[in-house]
């Protein structure tokens, strides 16, 4: 099998991690192949004129090519960053002409804005960094913008949310191209999750809630995340924080922006979704592991928040080896 060329576009004020994160994943996959690295990925970078670019962090990157001389890629990757706010028209024109020729088109963060400017997302479902989803939808009404997932696949086009989501997407592509073992080896080397599924919300429970200012409340937040199957009643959590239940409930909501009960619900739901997606454990076992107690309680939580039963959710996003692609169920963002 011939190596897949991954061409990464470079431009001034690009986000450096949008470039280097996916590049490290693809490079790691090549290293995993031992004496046959040429069978995996051939990574190349290119800027408009072939000259160095200065990223938004001040890091200078030296490309391999000018865009006019760049090899035809299998995977064309467009990073995000401040440089996408007022893109060079020549870059947009190049994407408009050459983007459709790539068998796989990928953006990280606000790189989706460049793809949209070039008309490459029209009629497609896409995402970008949560802070720019409204702008993408407003400026490009032909794009179906989904602000929730960390990445979205629509045919041969894949768009992802901010920074680390580009690593998640790159790992998913490696798993698709070379199997789970290779992707797992890369993930272990980079000390990241093998795969946060693309349908996972950009806001996890920990990001949806603010981090409490006071140490006892922060410790409680961490305890909830690590022990979803424990007694997480207000009384128990208040005792852990050494506060009265009434004082604890008021302070937790004031400092995190949500009630203790809502935070517990989000943590349990997030854990249950991950286990349904990544394991073959039965619903009864998962309901116990995540603190629901019974499959019926877990079913009610899924129906209330995701509009789907655990069994239906698993059919759409099933465990490795039996995975079938699907759309993410709608999810309430209310707290």
TrEMBL record:
The keyword Transcription regulation belongs to this UniProt entry's keyword annotation: yes
Record carries keyword Transcription: yes
Domain HTH araC/xylS-type: 218-316
One Pfam family linked to the record: DJ-1_PfpI
Keywords per UniProt: Transcription, Transcription regulation
Record-linked PANTHER family: ARAC-FAMILY TRANSCRIPTIONAL REGULATOR (PTHR43130), HTH-TYPE TRANSCRIPTIONAL REGULATOR RV1931C (PTHR43130:SF3)
The name this protein goes by in its record: GlxA family transcriptional regulator
Organism this protein belongs to: Streptomyces aureus
